[in-house]
Structure formats: structure tokens, C-alpha cells
Amino acid sequence: MSFEPKILGFLCNWCSYAGADLAGVSRIQYPPNMRVIRVMCSGRVDPMFIFQALQQGIDGVFVMGCHPGDCHYLEGNYEAEKKFDMTVKFLKMIDLDNRIRLDWVSASEGVRFGQVVSDFIDHIRELGPSPVSGENPDENLLIKLMAMEVAAGTDRMRALVGRERKLIEEENAYGELVPEEKFNEIFDSAIHDEYIRARILLSLNKDPKSVKDLALEIEIDPSEILENILILKGRAQVDMQEIVGITPIYMRT
Amino acid sequence: MAEKEDNGIEKPRVGVFICHCGSNIGGLIDCKKLAEYAGTLPDVVHFEDNLYTCSENGLNAIKNAIKEHDLNRVVVASCTPRTHEPLFRECIAEEGLNEYLFNFVNIRDQCTWVHMKDPEGAYAKAQDLVRMGAAKATKLEALEKVSVDINPAALVIGGGVAGMSAALNLNNQGFTTHLIEKEDQLGGRLRSLHKLFPHDLDAATLLNEIKGNVEKASNLTLYTSATLKEVDGFVGNYDVVIDQGGSEVKLTVGAIIVAVGASLFVPKDLYGYDGRTRVTQQELETKMKNNDINANNVIMIQCVGSRNDERPYCSSVCCMTALTNALIIKEKDPNTNVTILFRDLYTPGTDYEETYRKAREKGVLFIRYSLEREPVVEEDHVKVYNEYIGEEMIVPYDLLVLSTPLIANDDNKALAQLLKVPLEANKFFLEAHVKLRPNDFATDGVFIGGAAKWPVDITEAITQGYAAASRASTILSHESIEVEGATSHLPELNKSLCTGCEVCIKVCPYKAIIKNEDDEIEIIQAVCKGCGVCGATCSQQAIVIRHFTNEQILSEIYAYGGRAV
Ligand code: FES
Question: CB–CB of B536/B504 below 8 Å?
Fold first, then answer.
């Protein structure tokens, strides 16, 4: 049997959902693979929803909003874009970024709605089933996805995304603009760090481990693990459990 | 009464109603089977299929089922919430259920209508959607709408014909009305016009009559040389500050009407425009008023600076303006040659079409040109490629008139930001919905009329002024109104999570979130429009978006994905 992708769409009430309705009224035909969750604005789409959908084994997630400048709530779609971009950055690490898409469809673009949905379905069909779908999902990838969700949910990441537009387009508390490259640098390193920290936390949730064991599991340098463990200790999320021989064993607090 | 769960919360008892919508849904998928499937879902205690769930019979079926099966959640799978949600909400409310305990599943517009050649695929999709919808329904919470008091006063921005019409209408209904005009006198674009189509009414006569009415109006205060400086508050309670020649006037109004009109595009660098022998239609009208035309050959060029890449829209008034002015010239001296170079002529309705016919009868010449081969203006003649005969023509002129479009005012952006309302691509104001709410903004209590929203002629500007006023009066005529309950919310329990990072304040487009005197984040429900951006942004995930909570949305995701969590 040919592969029928399982696709989830988040549609904002005012433009894309209305566009989808118009496609119906105009009897535009497209394949039935996408299930829709209606939200009032694309800016409501919390990255958590996308990570959760992927963990559910859904093959592709489509977020749709009003065209730039047309958001019913003025600028919600710009906020949506920032959140989406961050999600893409995380998913790039595990090559799942091409399973999510963001696009704009207006209330009058019934034909276009059918087109972009068909395109996305074709695209996912070509990619094949998600590696975390089906009966035997790639457990390692699932753990990574989970860690990304945790990382994206940290107050640091959320505050960064929430402030991004103001920082780049307006100014910070000291009345200065942050240049975009500079911001991206901070942002990318935050993504990397928070992801590693989330991996450590998830791993320690199961059982206490040494730095070396963590490094093996997460596949990064032990020195970086140690660095992050110290930060997590500072945040009171990790503590030393015991010292076995000369090796400290860490646990969740 | 429905049994309580251990935590004291009522256990969900969901009723699912599958609508055939005649044959629109039922013709493609088996609605009976779908209803039976719904019956197998968690917490669904009643299911049925109806020929038309929105019909009298269908609504009664819902009401009966609520009584009979003690339902506390209702799911209807049918057309689209965008048209029918209010009806079903009202229906369950009549049976005593909170209207927010209703959930809509779209299996027509977004399913059977778009998968007509794939009934199996459509059925599978409908099944998933019903499962997701029922799952969300179990998580729905009753919400209360908030009631806000209304100040029975209005602010009208713009003293042109639309604004004056709106203000007079409100005044006549007995509402205290404040009209502000940025120029030092009333009239707007009407001041620069000569004769008004279709019946050549004198613009000055009309203006004087309306102005006279404004001056006589007893509840109406006029502020000229005045602009809007600050706006705060929400529907029924807008605190505004007006700047009138440097001094401030503070007002509290219940509704605001935007009627700022539009500006005329000046064709600098186009067709040798010089404001003397090569003029705009508006300058021609000034000349006419002053009886200052002595030309033997008049050429008018239409669509100058419009319907092109930069300004893709049709300004809608220029065809009729050109025809009217051409006729006036012809009537004054039938020997004057008048040639109109056009791309397409738009004269909707009998009166306007009649004007066109009359112009032809009187000998006005029409030559069609195309955007690809625009006319070339020389010292005393125009070279134009005539699309109909496929030949270049040379037409002499001593007066060249350029029909330029109405464009958005320069200060629209600043006003839009003050009022928190959107502009469209050409910087005109954008209404909430082109068909359903053409004179409203999405922001409650703020309305729009006239050329601020799109180029319109005087008749239409007046009509829209009245329309905006009547929309405003639907609010002003109440002592209080209820506003949306599905808003952002910071639950008491979550307050301790808040670290005061203020990201929510930054992303809220409506200033609905503030830091109050106790230095706590406070969400003003009456101002919130429920977009949900703050909830998706809050760094501590402390803010709850009612009716679209994380839990509710996740329940839909899980119901689709099907993996245990
Ligand atoms: S309402 Fe469509 S993106 Fe905001």
C-alpha cells in the first residue's frame, strides 16, 4: 500500500481557516491527509504543539496564518514566524525541519489553500513516513524530540523568542538596537546549550549518571557536559548524588 | 445532575450530532456510521445524525438530548464555525448550558466538499476530526462574558463628508458627539470638487448644507485644526486626548469612528504634469469653478498612476469624474474637442452608465490605450497607440487633464498605531471582514467609513458615514455590553509562576496586559481579543488562553496522533 502521510494543520480563524472554507465553497479538490486544528491566530501556535505532534508520530505539521500585515490581531503572524523559526532551528539538528512548514493564506485564497496543502502533502509523501511514526519509532530520535520540547520550553528560550522582534526592530532597555547577526549568535548558542541541558535532565530523570556516561549517551564532549551540569546545579535542577571511586554521580533534584 | 469526578469537576457527558447537510455531507459519507463511531469515543454518552442539525428539528434534537441524557458538552459536526457557531451556542444556552461548552467540527467545507472523489479518505478524515472535536469538548470549560459600562458618547475622526454624515447621524440619535478635523475647516475633499456626479449637484451647495447642519447640531462639538494624540481604554470607555493647536482636550467616549478620507495622488514626473496646462482633475475643477478654462482641445488621460504595479487598485471615482467634467466642458462650448484616453471605463449602475452614453452623444472622443503602450505627451500633442484600430494617433491639446487616483493619507499609519487597527497593502484602513463586518474594525468599539477604507465617491462616503454611525450606535445605545469570554487569563494559581519578565506586555497588540499598582501582571479582559499570542509566549507558561488552552489543543493533537501520553 502506498504511504498516506498523516498531516496536522494549525489554521488561524480569520485568514487561513476562512481560506480553507472558501476552498470548500468553491469545491476545490485536494487530498484528504490533513486534519485541522483551529486557533484564533497563528501566533497562538506554541512550539510545544509542534514538538508534541511530531512525538505523536505525525508525519508533517503545517502552520498557516494571514499574510504579513493582514493578521486580524495586527502582528500575531510575525510572532508566529519567530516561534516557528526557532522550532525549525531545533529540528534541523535531527533533520526533521523539513517536516514542518509555515505559510500564509488569506480568506480569499481558496484556490491557493488547496494548492499549498496539496504541495505539502506531496512533499511529505516524498519524504516518506516520519522516523518516529508507526509501530517501531526511532526511540533515540523521540528522546531528542522530547529534549527539544523541554529546551524550547525553558524560560530562557521563550523569553528570547518573545523579545526577538523588539530587540531587533526596536531597542533594548539601554535604548540600543541589537544587530540581527548578534542576536542570531546569542540565539543559536542558546538553542545548543538548552538542548544539551534538556538531554542531561531527561537522562538523569531515568537514573543518576556520571559525566562520562552522559557524554556517551548524548554524544558530546565530556567537558561540555560538565560545564552544563554546573549550570544546571546553579539552577538547582541537578545535584551530586555520590562519588563512586573518584567519579561523581549526578542526579535530578 | 451529572456525576462529579473525585476532584469535584463534573464528569463530561458529551453529545455528538452529525449533520447530513442534506446531501452535502450525507451524499458522500455515511453519517449514520460516523455517528455510531462517535458513540464509541470516551465520554460520549449520546450520538445521532440529523438531516439538518441547524434546522428547527435539529436544534430541538439537541435540546431534547441535553435534557434526556444530561449532556454537559455538545459537539456538532457539520459546516463551519465561522457561520454557524453562534446558532448552536445560542441553542445550548437556551437549554441552560454555558455557550462555551459547545464545540464545532467542520466536516463539510473542509471535508466532503473538498474530497468529493475520495469518499473513503473523506470518511477517515471526518472520523479523525470528530474524535479530535470530542476530545477537545471534554476539556472545555464554562466561561463568563464580562460586562462593561458604555459611555454614550462618540468621537468621529475626520470632518469630510463621511465624517460629518456619521457625526450628524449620531447627533440626531441623541448621542454626545465629538468631531475632529485636522484642517482649519470642515469639508475634506468635497471642498475641492466642482460638480458632483451623477446629477451635477453643486459641491459647494451640498457642503454648505451639511456644514450648516453640523453647526446647528445640539449634541455635536467640533474641533478644527485638531488631531488625535492619545487613545487608551476599550469599548465603551475610550479615554482620548485631542491636540488642538497645541492645547490638549481630554474626552471619554464609548465608540470611535475613523473617517479620515483619502488624498489625491499628484502625478509629479508623469506626462509632463506642471499644474498649469497639464493638470489633475482636481485642478481642472478649480479652474472650472473660477471660470478659467479657455481651451479648444482637451485631452484627459485615465488611470494615471493607478492600476499598475505600484498601485494595483482602481480608484473607482476617476472615470465618472472625467465623464462629468468632459460633459461640463462640452455643454459650455460644444466646439471644444474633448478626448478621453482610457484603459477600461467603469460606470456601474444606470445613472453612471447614462453619463457615459451622454458623453458619447455629445461627441466626447474615447481612445483606448494599454498599460504596455502608454500615451506619450509632447509639447502640444499626445501620441497614443489606439488599441482598437491598431494604429498610432496624434491628438493635439492645449489642456491636458490627468485622472489620478485617491491614495491613502500619509498619516494613516500613525493613526492606525494609535487605534491598534490594521491597514491593508495600499495603506488604506482594513475592515474586520469585507462582507460580514464592512464598517467595523476587529477592535470593539472602533468603526470605519468612507474613503479612509477605499476610494469612494461622495454618495458612497455619505452612505458609509451613516453605516459607521449606525454600527457605533449598536454599542452606544446600551448601558452596558458583554464582551468575549474566550480571552487570555492569568489564573490565581499561576500568579506565583510569573517572574515579571513582561514579555507578554511586549507582544500584546492591544495593551491588554499591564503591570498594576501591586507590580503584578494584570490582564484586562475587556481589552483582550483572545488572539493567544501572550499564552504562546509567556516564558513561564503561566498565562492560559481560554477556550484554546494548552490542554485543549494538546487533547486534539493526542486524539489525532493516538499515542498514549
Ligand atoms: S489572525 Fe491570522 S495570523 Fe493572526
Answer: no
Specify the pairing of strand B220-223 against strand B176-180.
Answer: parallel
pLDDT in tens, B159-178: 999 999 999 999 999 999 99
- Note whether B533 contacts A158, CB cutoff 8 Å: no
- Supply the pLDDT for residue B9: 67
Q: Name the residue with cell 497562538.
A: A44
**Considering the domain A154-252 in this protein, what is its CATH number?**
1.10.10.10
- For residue B10, what pLDDT is reported? 80
- Nearest by CB to B557, which of A56, A72, A162? A56
Query: Which amino acids bring their CB within 6 angstroms of ligand 1?
Result: A 12, 14-15, 41-43, 65-66, 71-73, 76-77
CATH of domain B265-406: 3.50.50.60
The whole-model pTM stands at 0.80
* A201, amino acid identity: L
The dihedral built from the CA positions of residue B241, B244, B248 and B252, taken in this order, carries a sign that is negative
What is the rounded (10 degree) CA torsion for B90, B96, B100, B102? -70
Task: Write down the domain spans for chain A.
Answer: 7-127, 154-252
Gap from CA of B79 to ligand 1 centroid (Å): 21
Which of B110, B116, B117 lies closest to A20 in CB terms? B110
Q: Is A233 on the interface with B (CB under 8 A)?
A: no
Looking at the domain that runs over B14-143, which CATH code has it been given?
3.40.50
Task: Please give the CATH architecture assigned to the domain spanning A7-127.
Answer: 3-Layer(aba) Sandwich (3.40)
For A23-68, the pLDDT digits (tens) are 999 999 999 999 999 999 999 999 999 999 999 999 999 999 999 9
Fold match, B153-262+408-481 / B265-406: yes
What is the rounded average pLDDT for all residues in chain B?
A: 95
- Residues in chain B predicted with pLDDT less than 70, given as ranges, are 1-9
For chain B, the structural domain boundaries read: 14-143, 153-262+408-481, 265-406, 488-546
CATH number of B488-546: 3.30.70.20
- Which residues lie below 8 Å from residue B379, measured CB to CB, with a gap of 6+? none
Estimate the crossing angle of helix A16-25 against helix B81-94, to 10 degrees: 100
Pick the CATH number of B153-262+408-481 from 3.50.50.60, 3.30.1490.20, 3.30.300.30, 3.30.590.10: 3.50.50.60
As a whole number of angstroms, the distance between CA A89 and CA A50 comes to 13
User: Could you read off the pLDDT of A234-253 as tens digits, one per residue?
Assistant: 999 999 999 999 999 999 99
